[in-house]
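Re: beginner question about structure tokens

> Can someone show what the tokenized structure looks like for a real chain? I only ever see the sequence side.

Sure, here's an example I had lying around. Input first:
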Amino acid sequence: MLDRYVDFTFSPTSFQFAKGGIWENAWSFSVDRLPSGHELVTYLARGNEVAFEAFFGRAFFGARITGSPLDVETFSLKCLEAARAQASFFPAFQREFGFPVLGQLPTFAEIGCINAWRSVGALCIPHLPLASADFDQLLSSLRGSPVGHNTCHDKAIEFAFEHPLAHWFGVPVSIPGGSNLVSEDLLRQALRL
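And the corresponding structure tokens:
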């Protein structure tokens, strides 16, 4: 996927961490104001789970870990080091974690509201080939869902992978500055990835 989506070839523009999957309260920072290691450890508060996302304009890449507080801290500090690598973000991330793996097929996909995945809900696509083959059915399901009705948030489709850690690529599927409804054309393009 990474090799087929041009937005991921640029340097990240911003980053965020979220605890407990609550993206509505994510700790976000720009590329020119990365936190110190101490600030990050303080934010983690010896928690057992955290997720990290790097934004490339409107597209994003994320990863999550659940484990001991030391595992979570180590993961998060390595994510911060990859963020400092700027244009070399993905090579640095791959070196540290062994993923993302070029050519790896997603386990599933979801369409949701950026930074409101939990509060609005998401539409799960368990079988991507079937969704692509029956696009009209997918569109009908989406239009009948809470995420399909939401006009307050930008939308994305996340292509999710489970190994070696949970990670995902988010591709925008709504037009900025518009109604925030899912664009049929952008969704078709994303499913071709």
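Each token stands for a local structural state, so reading them left to right follows the chain. The first strand starts at residue 14 and ends at 18.
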